[in-house]
Amino acid sequence: MTKRMLMVMTSHEIMGDTDKKTGMWLEEFAAPYYAFKDQGYTITLASPMGGQVPIDPNSLADDAMTDDAMRYTKDELARSAMASTIPLEDVRADEFDAVFYPGGHGPLWDLSDNAHSIKLIEDTIAAKKPVGAVCHAPIVLKDVKTSDGKYLVDGKQVTGFSNSEEAAMELTDVVPYLVEDELVKKGGKYESADDFAVKVCTDGLLVTGQNPPSSRPAADALIKLLA
């Protein structure tokens, strides 16, 4: 049976009270997308609003364009899928074998407290299926609970964009949440590598990656859980 992967991305494109654009970080979509695609998975894309996912313009800069990101720009099928994502409220956990959340700053606004996202993750975990998230996307875990009412990340090894990485971006006072702080508040055993070095945590059914370079390693860890 072909594995069915759901990728959930942001619909949010403005950086807080600034007029700067944000959205999804392209590498954090492209690397996992091609890792899954090359495994033969069927991939479905969803977002809170449905339709076109905004891509952070900074992730299109020359120094951010990895091989996977370049592959995406030439892939008409992938770009068309990104332009026509399914609204998150129409998605059901039982239709997929796993869920993966790419980051970018966007999720801090529209996926951090999203009831549809919380239910999706709770239902996926309850069905003993894995969930992955990278960079800013682990913010989606902050209010997720297990069937016994505990926070999902409580006592689990987790990672995500670190406070020092956010400080390096000079966005500490712009963002509504700091991923590291929120995971720690909910009992997560937060771990990080040096700024922008690769770090992935797998704990049970949960896979988290720290930053853009951790995107493909996080996807590979999720693939391993599905093998």
How would you describe this protein?
By secondary structure, this protein is α/β, with parallel strands linked by helices. The chain has a seven-stranded mixed sheet with strand order 3-2-1-4-5-9-8. The longest helix is centred in the first third of the chain and has 13 residues. The protein is globular and about 45 Å long.
Feature tags:
single chain; 227 residues; alpha/beta; 7-stranded mixed β-sheet; two-stranded parallel ribbon; 8 helices; 9 strands; 30% helix; globular
Major sheet summary line? 7 strands, mixed
Oligomer: single chain
> Rg from C-alpha positions?
16 Å
Q: pLDDT under 50 segments (min length 5)?
A: none
Summing up helix and strand content along with how strands pair, one would put the structural category as alpha/beta
Number of H- or I-type helical stretches: 8
